[in-house]
Amino acid sequence: MARKAIAKDQIVKLIVGAGQAAPSPPVGPALGSKGVKSMDFCKEFNARTQNYVPGTPIPARVTVRPDRSFTFELRTPPTASLLLSAAGVAPTKNKLKGAGNAAGPNSNAGLEGRGKSSNQTGPGAAGNSSLGTVGQVSLKQVYEIAKIKTSETRLSGIGLEAIVKSVIAQAGSMGVVVVP
């Protein structure tokens, strides 16, 4: 005979645009399979994200209890989307996209953003390096992004300087140049 499983909380992680939650995919199927009414989540999510710029991707961590009630916590927007919006990158197909394999912050390529060194030359060399850099951000903007990220509880043990270094490294890998 099989033992009955003990019911426990289930966690669903979603990334939804601020103010754009709807019971259609990805929200509907993810919560519907857990027995949660997705319309209730959408109304509450949209109400809590009304102070964000519409469409900004907001990660949400939804905890579903065995009685099908739920709670959720909002996290800060991903660092990549904050960097691209600070750099003024125009959305492509309603999404912000970086350059890909562009030169990092410690590279000799500088503002040229030539990308990774490889034997290939021309527009198709080294992944998306043909895109070069997609924009520039100042150190002040990097500091503001790091301040936003420090408000998140899971990053509370990390110092501001370490978060700033992380943001600068991510900017380099995305093709966003950090200028003093």
Automatic annotation (TrEMBL):
<dbReference type="InterPro" id="IPR020783">
    <property type="entry name" value="Ribosomal_uL11_C"/>
</dbReference>
<dbReference type="Pfam" id="PF03946">
    <property type="entry name" value="Ribosomal_L11_N"/>
</dbReference>
<keyword id="KW-0687">Ribonucleoprotein</keyword>
<dbReference type="InterPro" id="IPR000911">
    <property type="entry name" value="Ribosomal_uL11"/>
</dbReference>
<dbReference type="InterPro" id="IPR036796">
    <property type="entry name" value="Ribosomal_uL11_N_sf"/>
</dbReference>
<dbReference type="InterPro" id="IPR036769">
    <property type="entry name" value="Ribosomal_uL11_C_sf"/>
</dbReference>
<dbReference type="Pfam" id="PF00298">
    <property type="entry name" value="Ribosomal_L11"/>
</dbReference>
<comment type="similarity">
    <text>Belongs to the universal ribosomal protein uL11 family.</text>
</comment>
<feature type="domain" description="Large ribosomal subunit protein uL11 C-terminal">
    <location>
        <begin position="75"/>
        <end position="178"/>
    </location>
</feature>
<feature type="compositionally biased region" description="Low complexity">
    <location>
        <begin position="98"/>
        <end position="110"/>
    </location>
</feature>
<dbReference type="GO" id="GO:0070180">
    <property type="term" value="F:large ribosomal subunit rRNA binding"/>
</dbReference>
<keyword id="KW-0689">Ribosomal protein</keyword>
<dbReference type="InterPro" id="IPR020784">
    <property type="entry name" value="Ribosomal_uL11_N"/>
</dbReference>
<feature type="region of interest" description="Disordered">
    <location>
        <begin position="96"/>
        <end position="131"/>
    </location>
</feature>
<dbReference type="GO" id="GO:0006412">
    <property type="term" value="P:translation"/>
</dbReference>
<dbReference type="GO" id="GO:0003735">
    <property type="term" value="F:structural constituent of ribosome"/>
</dbReference>
<feature type="domain" description="Large ribosomal subunit protein uL11 N-terminal">
    <location>
        <begin position="12"/>
        <end position="70"/>
    </location>
</feature>
<dbReference type="GO" id="GO:0005762">
    <property type="term" value="C:mitochondrial large ribosomal subunit"/>
</dbReference>
<protein>
    <recommendedName>
        <fullName>Ribosomal protein L11</fullName>
    </recommendedName>
</protein>
<feature type="compositionally biased region" description="Polar residues">
    <location>
        <begin position="116"/>
        <end position="131"/>
    </location>
</feature>
<dbReference type="InterPro" id="IPR006519">
    <property type="entry name" value="Ribosomal_uL11_bac-typ"/>
</dbReference>
